[in-house]
Amino acid sequence: MLLSELKTLYKLEWRQFSRSQGQWLFPVMLFILVIVLFTVGIDPEAHRLQQMAPAVIWCAFLLSLLLALDHMWRDDYQNGVLEQMLLHSESPLQLLLHRVVVRWVLSIVPLLLCLPLAISMLQMPMTIFMPSLLALAAGSFVFWSLGSALSALTLNDRRPALMSLLLLPMAVPIVIFGSRVIKQSAMGESVSGLVLMLVGLSILSLSITPWIMFAGMRLNLD
Asked: What is the pTM of this model?
């Protein structure tokens, strides 16, 4: 029964993504725009760009994900789909978790495809691509999980910026660790410890946030 629910979920998410009329382009455009404005707005010396590039890549990446997080649960909550999903699902926690993962994948893949362009625009060595890719994938999942939980907790709140204001301070440790991955990989140093730390944080968020999401939705639906 759960397997059929998951298959239906995957089909619906892909159908919704394919019919989104290019809404997935908005985070990509924001990501590229932030990189372009940064390169235009400062002294175009390679050394200056390389010093600030790690933080710029991470901030642009996470800010772009905020556009996708804004509609994580709210639309389904308003049209009643979320309530039906929780009431009639055999395992609502697993269903919520799979939906978070599916939407995360659909949101970050277009952004990660733009990473080589961002690296070249910021005049960073292309050798940082793979460490940056791994760190962005792991760190963004922590950010996405926390954002999904906060979005579930603030379903009834009419202030759309509240979730972003609560989420951005939580992203500071992710940006710090992720920026160090890019800096150390650019200098040829080992970054396996930092990447594993981000992976550990993503696993931790994977085990905690579904319970927070479920509790927040039950609270808002009661």
From this structure: 0.86
